[in-house]
Amino acid sequence: MSDKNRVVIFDTTLRDGEQSPGATMSHEEKLEIASLLDEMGVDIIEAGFPIASEGDFAAVSAIARQARNAVVCGLARAQIPDIDRCWEAVRHAKRPRIHTFIGTSPLHRAIPNLDMDQMAERIEQTVTHARNLCDNVQWSPMDATRTEHDYLCRVVEIAIRAGATTINIPDTVGYTAPRESAALIRMLLERVPGADTVVFATHCHNDLGMATANALAAVEAGARQIECTINGLGERAGNTALEEVVMALKVRHDIMPFDTGIDTTKIIGISRRVAQVSGFPVQFNKAIVGKNAFLHESGIHQDGVLKNVETFEIMRPADIGLNETNIAMGKHSGRAALRAKLSDLGYDVGDNQLKDIFVRFKALADRKKEVYDEDIVALVQDASANT
Ligand code: KIV
Ligand code: ZN
């Protein structure tokens, strides 16, 4: 793996993810999730927003002390007290990072009521201050995708000169589209002096359902850090889902030859745990981690999968750590699937008996949404009792 094709995975489940209304996690739950992220090979854990609350400060400090491999990052607005508080929390980490941001689009500039020059000055002061505390500083122009290009180039250059080591380009409101996401990164790499000395990151929200596509397009254009969350948790429609970008890069390595350090077999475990602790269930048909993501019900699909799994599966369930059966028994299931299921359950039935059980099975499947293993065992027992 060449270093230039290594994509850094920056997980913000505990910061941007936890900002979803109702997704608050307890201190212990945050520590547990951070430890799972570290174990799965996430490069950077954004652990929280230390100035936001005492609880956030305590969680970021504890995660900083606990992390074994990952860089631990805290978020700070472009204000000196925020940055100082953030540093107080992350400084305990083996590898700390300060992430400071300010909204640079016209709509966001109006909120602190700063003109372009005043904002540029603020960026220079705050990034310089952060860099004096920590040698790993990330800077984000919030709402970058709706910021004028000339101004964006100007402020990115200022942040780089002031010492930022990573420049994150947020699509804060999920407004961009893949071609534009790529063009923006390309434009910055071409126009900003010093752009080749820093890492460019992509941070996409999913308001139009394009977060994964936008993040991957940015990587193809030269971004080398993807910001994402487990299960795509995050404000409104969420952030880029970690499992989606990581598996897309793995499965389509032929056309996107980029590598991450993620142990993908840990994906399903952490996805389920995040769903539990955040109280945000994963939709059944969610890519990669949904309950149905690897399930086949129609007879044609089941028959195909039983003969050659590649007919209807582009990745193996085991690749994400899932060791469950991929056949869902229901009214669309065929005889081949029933025979395979019976054999899994330890029944070796002859053709006549299979025919009989199949008729009973179809009648039951018409009445019931899902047919469970216990139902099938009962059918076999019924069929045997009546012969
Ligand atoms: O979406 C966003 O702009 C953010 C920033 C704080 C990076 O989350
Ligand atoms: Zn965000």
From TrEMBL:
<dbReference type="GO" id="GO:0005829">
    <property type="term" value="C:cytosol"/>
</dbReference>
<comment type="subunit">
    <text>Homodimer.</text>
</comment>
<dbReference type="GO" id="GO:0009098">
    <property type="term" value="P:L-leucine biosynthetic process"/>
</dbReference>
<comment type="pathway">
    <text>Amino-acid biosynthesis; L-leucine biosynthesis; L-leucine from 3-methyl-2-oxobutanoate: step 1/4.</text>
</comment>
<keyword id="KW-0963">Cytoplasm</keyword>
<keyword id="KW-0028">Amino-acid biosynthesis</keyword>
<feature type="binding site">
    <location>
        <position position="239"/>
    </location>
    <ligand>
        <name>Mn(2+)</name>
    </ligand>
</feature>
<keyword id="KW-0432">Leucine biosynthesis</keyword>
<keyword id="KW-0808">Transferase</keyword>
<keyword id="KW-0100">Branched-chain amino acid biosynthesis</keyword>
<feature type="binding site">
    <location>
        <position position="205"/>
    </location>
    <ligand>
        <name>Mn(2+)</name>
    </ligand>
</feature>
<comment type="similarity">
    <text>Belongs to the alpha-IPM synthase/homocitrate synthase family. LeuA type 1 subfamily.</text>
</comment>
<comment type="function">
    <text>Catalyzes the condensation of the acetyl group of acetyl-CoA with 3-methyl-2-oxobutanoate (2-ketoisovalerate) to form 3-carboxy-3-hydroxy-4-methylpentanoate (2-isopropylmalate).</text>
</comment>
<feature type="binding site">
    <location>
        <position position="203"/>
    </location>
    <ligand>
        <name>Mn(2+)</name>
    </ligand>
</feature>
<protein>
    <recommendedName>
        <fullName>2-isopropylmalate synthase</fullName>
        <ecNumber>2.3.3.13</ecNumber>
    </recommendedName>
</protein>
<feature type="binding site">
    <location>
        <position position="16"/>
    </location>
    <ligand>
        <name>Mn(2+)</name>
    </ligand>
</feature>
<keyword id="KW-0012">Acyltransferase</keyword>
<keyword id="KW-0479">Metal-binding</keyword>
<dbReference type="GO" id="GO:0003852">
    <property type="term" value="F:2-isopropylmalate synthase activity"/>
</dbReference>
<keyword id="KW-0464">Manganese</keyword>
<dbReference type="GO" id="GO:0030145">
    <property type="term" value="F:manganese ion binding"/>
</dbReference>
<feature type="domain" description="Pyruvate carboxyltransferase">
    <location>
        <begin position="7"/>
        <end position="268"/>
    </location>
</feature>
<dbReference type="GO" id="GO:0003985">
    <property type="term" value="F:acetyl-CoA C-acetyltransferase activity"/>
</dbReference>
